[in-house]
Amino acid sequence: MLNKGSFKTTWVKWSDLFSKEEIAQIKQLKKDNVLSRGVLAGDKENLEYRKCKVFFVSRDESTEWIFEKLENCIISTNRDFYNFELYPLKTFQYTSYVGDDQEFYNWHWDMHSSGELISQRKISGVVQLTDPSEYEGGDLEMSICGSLEVVPKIQGSCNLFPTFVNHRVTKVTKGLRETIVFWVEGPDWR
Questions:
Q1: What separation in angstroms does the CA of 124 have from each of 1, 12, 109, 136?
Q2: What is the rounded average pLDDT of the residues 102-109?
Q3: Domain residues for 40?
Q4: 150 occurs within a structural domain
Q5: Residue 113 has pLDDT above 80, yes or no
Q6: Which residues have a Cβ under 8 Å from the Cβ of 157 and sit 6 or more positions away?
Q7: Model-level pTM?
Q8: Which end of the chain is flanked by fewer CB atoms within 10 Å, N or C?
Q9: 28/168 Cα distance (integer angstroms)
Q10: CB neighbours of 145 closer than 8 A, spacing ≥ 6?
Q11: In-domain check, residue 179
């Protein structure tokens, strides 16, 4: 059962969206996928700005249960807080930050690609797959109206926020941080 999201300025947290057993199933996706270097918009590699590894997961019979949980959370949050016009979620990104490599993602919005505005990206989401005791650093931080907010690290939680919120992941200094990251699209802003 989904927990009610809690509103904190412009982001919404869903605690315990995925159980430890479900997280173990999600982590099995690594067996069938190859992690590659995360790049910036336009497939540009800039290790001073972003350093992590990723692969993308498409919606199919084997992953439908993950997408259904994410969409229930998205629909409820959007109805209660944002009221954006949205399309169904088609893919998500599995992201890995390794402490031995000091991996991170510097300040950014999720609205840009190849230097052009992607007006259809409307909501960003991050699901915490790793128990926070298994790594150090790797804080998801948001800069909202001049205030720095650190998102609590809760395994199985999902944090949603508008794609125009400036955010980053600080360097992971020890261990491994794994997440699901997704962007919900919709018709052009108007």
A1: 22, 11, 9, 23
A2: 94
A3: 6-185
A4: yes
A5: no
A6: 13, 14, 15, 16, 17, 127, 128
A7: 0.90
A8: N
A9: 26
A10: 9
A11: yes
The predicted structure's pLDDT at residue 136: 98
**Residues 52, 176, 92, 116: what is their CA dihedral angle, to the nearest 10 degrees?**
-30
> Which tokens in the block code for residue 115?
């230097």
Residue 66 falls within a domain, yes or no?
yes
> Per residue in 43-88, pLDDT tens?
667 778 899 999 999 999 999 999 999 999 999 999 999 999 999 9
H/E stretch holding 76 reads helix 64-77
Share of the chain above pLDDT 70, in %: 89
Closest CA to 25 of 61, 74, 65, 59: 65
Kindly report the CATH number assigned to the domain that includes residue 26.
2.60.120.620
Query: Has residue 99 been placed in a domain?
Result: yes
Question: For the segment 20-30, what is each residue's pLDDT rounded down to a tens digit?
Answer: 999 999 999 99
Domain tally, the chain: 1
The rounded radius of gyration (Å) of the Cα atoms in the chain is 16
CA dihedral 36, 155, 25, 138 (to 10 degrees): 10
What is the C-alpha to C-alpha distance for residues 113 and 35, in angstroms, rounded to an integer? Answer: 21
- Pairing mode, if any, of strands 36-37 and 147-150? unpaired
Q: Considering only CA atoms, which of 183, 178, 184 is closest in space to residue 95?
A: 178
